[in-house]
Amino acid sequence: MGKYQDIEASQLSQAPEEVKQYVCVDVRTDEEYQEGHIPGAIHIPHDQMETRHTELTPYKGQKILLICRSGRRSVFAANVLADQGFANLYNLKGGMLEWTGPQTKE
């Protein structure tokens, strides 16, 4: 595995129990996040990841799933976290555009 591993959004969204094994981190803008996100997702916009990555330190040993709209900004966030020593990083390939699983606006 390189800095992160891709997981297909279309496949993972069909397995809600599997999603629970990840710490979900949504890296979209505030507006995008409020329109709907995976339940329980931590919200840290990708352009704030370099300054806010310490908020994820308690989860450093766990699997972290990075989520954005299409899968590009989450790659940026994965690289930032990898540079900070995070190892178990996963990119939701296809992002929320291809996610068909549960969403919440809370």
Could you walk me through the main structural features you see in this protein, from its secondary elements to its overall organization?
The chain is 31% helix and 20% strand. It has 106 residues and is an alpha/beta fold. The chain has a single domain, classed as Oxidized Rhodanese, domain 1 (3-Layer(aba) Sandwich), CATH 3.40.250. Strand 2, helix 3 (30-35) and strand 3 form a beta-alpha-beta unit. The model has no long low-confidence stretch (mean pLDDT 95).
Structural class computed from helices and strand pairing: alpha/beta
Main sheet attributes: strand count, strand direction, barrel closure: 5 strands, parallel
Strand content: 15-25%
Number of helices: 6
Q: Outline, from the CA principal axes?
A: globular
Name the poorly predicted regions.
Answer: none
State the main characteristics.
alpha/beta, Thiosulphate_STrfase_CS, Oxidized Rhodanese, domain 1, Rhodanese-like domain-containing protein, GlpE_sulfurtransferase, 106 residues, 6 helices, 5 strands, Rhodanese-like_dom_sf, globular
Short recap of the structure:
The protein has 106 residues and is an alpha/beta fold. The chain has helices at 9-12, 16-19, 30-35, 49-52, 73-83, 95-98; strands at residues 5-8, 22-26, 42-43, 63-67, 89-93. The protein has one domain (5-98): Rhodanese-like domain (Oxidized Rhodanese, domain 1).
